[in-house]
């Protein structure tokens, strides 16, 4: 289970500087969201990518011994605006087409958030239609759509993600698991049950994992996301189950500042090594 990092935690930079800075902190892989992390190329609209450009970026990271393990795709995938949704789908499909030129096999996303957080069955059907279209593209290119549940999104729980996977059955859809995204103020005290349920429902479909931490704010009415090791999430349970279900799956660190990253990386690796010794 190697520990990587979200590339845009380093800010938006020219791609060669980004790869250098990530390597300097000892990370061997990244989740790369092109339009959030790379400043010297414009990826705000679909159509920019080509095999040459994708290979150029992938080779620059490879030069610094950093693999692109996941392409991040922060888009609203069931947008009620049909034109915007179509643009978002095309952007995602473009990443699927060129993923292998980046040296990557996963394009991942959460589902998206409606203003006010209201969701209807029509939204669910729109997301299901979107996923079916993305799956068709992924199957053509032999890559994975990574779907992540996140509280507040249309798919906000492990059970909702399991429902969507059942309704769009394809071996080219996998789960990017982040227990921190499943925790809320209401369920934080029973977080072990939430984590265990996620693995029970989704464990065999995990293709990548995220690592953030959580703690309750002093007022007790807000759950705050923090760097791994700086919160109160049960990482021993999380990594034990991750090792049990998907040994050596790649872990991508979230929420940390560059100053926190070395400590958080050591925190994860220490628990991971303990899990490996206890096999």
What attributes characterize this protein structure?
about 280 residues; alpha/beta; two-stranded antiparallel ribbon
Structure report:
This protein has 279 residues and is of the alpha/beta class. Helix content is 41%, strand content 16%. It has 9 helices and 10 strands. Strands 1-2-3-4-5-6-7-10 form an 8-stranded parallel barrel, surrounded by 4 helices. It has a two-stranded antiparallel sheet with strand order 8-9. The protein is globular, with a radius of gyration of 18 Å. The two termini are 14 Å apart. The model has no long low-confidence stretch (mean pLDDT 95).
Mean pLDDT rating: 95
Biggest β-sheet description: 8 strands, parallel, barrel
Please mark out the parts with pLDDT under 50 across 5 or more consecutive residues, or reply none.
none
Q: Please tell me what the overall shape is.
A: globular
What count of helical segments does DSSP give? 9
Distance, first to last CA: 14 Å
**Proportion of beta-strand residues:** 15-25%
Structural class, by secondary structure, is alpha/beta
The helical percent reads 40-55%
Count the strands?
A: 10
Radius of gyration: 18 Å
Order of helices and strands: EHEHHEHEHEHEHEEEHEH
């Amino acid at each position: 289970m190697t520990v990587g990092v979200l590339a845009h935690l380093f800010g938006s930079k020219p791609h060669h500087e980004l790869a250098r800075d990530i390597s300097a902190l000892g990370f061997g892989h990244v989740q790369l969201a092109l339009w959030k992390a790379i400043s010297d190329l414009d990826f705000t609209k679909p159509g920019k990518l080509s095999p040459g450009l994708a290979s150029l970026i992938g080779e620059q990271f490879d030069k610094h011994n950093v693999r692109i393990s996941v392409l991040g795709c922060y888009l609203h995938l069931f947008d009620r605006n049909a034109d915007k949704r179509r643009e978002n789908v095309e952007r995602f499909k473009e990443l699927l087409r060129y993923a292998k030129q980046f040296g990557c096999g996963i394009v991942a996303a959460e589902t998206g958030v409606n203003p006010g957080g209201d969701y209807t069955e029509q939204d669910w059907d729109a997301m299901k239609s979107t996923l079916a279209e993305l799956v068709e593209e992924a199957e053509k290119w032999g890559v994975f759509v990574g779907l992540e549940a996140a509280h507040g999104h249309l798919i906000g729980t492990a059970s909702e993600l399991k429902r969507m996977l059942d309704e769009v059955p394809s071996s080219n859809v996998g789960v990017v698991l982040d227990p921190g995204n499943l925790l809320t103020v209401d369920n934080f005290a029973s977080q072990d049950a939430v984590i265990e349920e996620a693995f029970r429902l989704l464990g065999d479909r995990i293709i990548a994992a995220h690592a953030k931490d959580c703690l309750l704010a002093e007022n007790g009415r807000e759950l705050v996301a923090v760097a791994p090791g700086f919160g109160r999430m049960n990482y021993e349970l999380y990594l034990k189950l991750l090792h049990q279900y998907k040994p050596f799956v790649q872990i991508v660190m979230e929420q940390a500042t560059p100053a926190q990253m070395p400590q958080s990386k050591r925190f994860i690796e220490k628990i991971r090594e303990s899990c490996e010794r206890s096999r």
